[in-house]
Specification:
Layout: E1 2-7, E2 13-18, H1 23-35, E3 40-47, E4 50-58, E5 74-75, H2 80-93, H3 120-124, H4 145-154, H5 172-184, H6 188-197, H7 232-239, H8 244-250, H9 260-264, E6 273-274, H10 276-288, H11 296-301, E7 349-352, E8 358-363, E9 368-374, H12 385-400
Antiparallel strand pairs: 1-2, 2-4, 3-4, 3-9, 5-6, 7-8, 8-9
């Protein structure tokens, strides 16, 4: 590994380390600051247990007054769902949770208003029919676990569970998290810390301690413009106040991704706080398929398609999910909006974050895990060009590197 200190065209310094075969990745990372006006970012790539890229650069705020450094944390947004799904699969591996079981076996109160036949697998693969909440969420509701669980117990699904796929953008954190709590007696955040974060020395929290708050980069929201490409999601959001698209992003009880309350709450769908190093580190044992975190059979399960084929009722584009993880999705010729693809290996699995904010995946075929975070949101529905270019560069570097062939 060689130390990286790259000064690019716009004078943003890139710091960290990379293996010589991955120099192309560093160059693409640096180019993002010039080509896409990146504010701050971090990237980590681990291959067969060896860190080959660990770099960062830019600033932690839109005002660019504070440098993004080695210890900077950021909001993982929906990349948190990879941690959430991993927690569920730890219980599946131990045969304490069974995807074919009805949810009511573990959580009896869930079986109301048309949800009686919902299985655990339907919650994991986004076919459960609760991608948003129709009941108005009280102010601060997202920070109150018991309150959110109660709402979900009484909600009526948007469709007959199991019939359609519709990305459960916010709700999946409480749905899966409550199953974990019912089985283990621990909150989602505590279970994740005990079973994954602490044992693997990660800086990753679902419920951030107060002492870590000052390390978190502030997120710059996406600003729409007349040049934005149209999409079914955007059209439904604009025109139908009762749509799942509108409700998923506005019926949130005042949720603010830059607030300390959000950092500290256990919002399992979108609220993880971490860095790229820990995103990649979490999935590295799965990329190696070494049987240490999950059994080898358990890892193979993560790349198996479980969603219903066709157009995702929430995102309005074709999606592919295993039980809790996103799989390879190439929608370049199928979707008119921005960033509607997630192009990874055929047996890779992971998750992406809101507005191109983050991405993580494991590819057991080449034993690679990947973690990426930024604090500038784009208009993407899956990942941004800035992230996909980095993924492409990683795969290219693997093919060139003699020690990884």
């Amino acid at each position: 590994m060689k130390r990286v200190e790259v000064q690019y065209k716009n004078s943003v310094q890139i710091n960290g380390q990379c293996h010589g075969d991955f120099q192309q990745v560093v160059e693409v990372f640096a180019e993002n600051f010039d080509k896409y006006s990146e504010i701050g970012s971090s990237l980590c790539v681990v291959v067969d247990g060896e860190t080959t890229v660990d770099i960062w650069g830019g600033h932690t705020t839109e005002q660019r007054t504070e440098q993004w450094n080695e210890d900077t944390l950021s909001v993982a947004f929906s990349s948190t769902k990879a941690a959430l799904a991993l927690c569920a699969h730890l219980l599946i591996d131990r045969e304490e949770l069974h995807p074919e079981d009805k949810v009511v076996k573990y959580w009896p109160e869930y079986g109301r208003n048309g949800k009686e036949e919902t299985t655990v697998g339907m919650i994991l693969n986004h076919t459960a029919g609760l991608p948003a909440i129709k009941t108005p969420v009280q102010d601060g509701g997202f920070y109150d676990w018991e309150y959110m669980v109660g709402l979900l117990e009484n909600e009526k699904p948007f469709w007959n569970p199991g019939d359609e796929t519709g990305y459960h953008m916010m709700t999946t954190g409480w749905l899966i998290g409550e199953l974990i709590r019912r089985i283990t007696g621990k909150s989602l955040g505590n279970f994740f810390e005990d079973e994954v974060s602490k044992p693997y020395n990660l800086e990753y929290w679902i419920g951030l301690p107060q002492k870590e708050v000052d390390r978190v980069a502030k997120v710059k929201p996406f600003t729409s413009s007349a040049s934005d490409k149209p999409s079914g999601f955007a059209e439904a959001f604009r025109t139908d106040p009762d749509s799942m698209q509108r409700l998923s992003l506005t019926n949130t009880g005042g949720y603010d991704y830059n607030s300390v309350e959000t950092y500290k709450a256990e919002i399992g769908g979108v609220g993880g706080i971490t860095n790229a190093r820990s995103l990649a580190g979490m999935l590295s044992p799965l990329a190696q398929n070494n049987g240490k975190l999950l059994s080898k059979g358990g890892v193979q399960r993560l790349s198996q398609l479980h969603s219903v084929p066709g157009i995702d009722k929430m995102l309005m584009l074709p999606t592919s999910f295993s039980e809790g993880f996103m799989l390879h999705m190439d929608n370049r010729r199928k979707f008119e909006g921005e960033g509607g693809s997630f192009i990874i290996g055929p047996n890779a699995f992971g998750h992406v974050g809101f507005g191109g904010s983050s991405a993580t995946f494991a590819d057991p075929d080449c034993k690679m895990s990947f973690g990426y975070m930024v604090n500038k949101l784009g208009g993407e529905y899956l990942i941004s060009k800035r992230c996909q270019n980095l993924i492409n560069a990683c795969y290219s570097s693997l093919q060139k590197g003699n020690i990884y062939k």
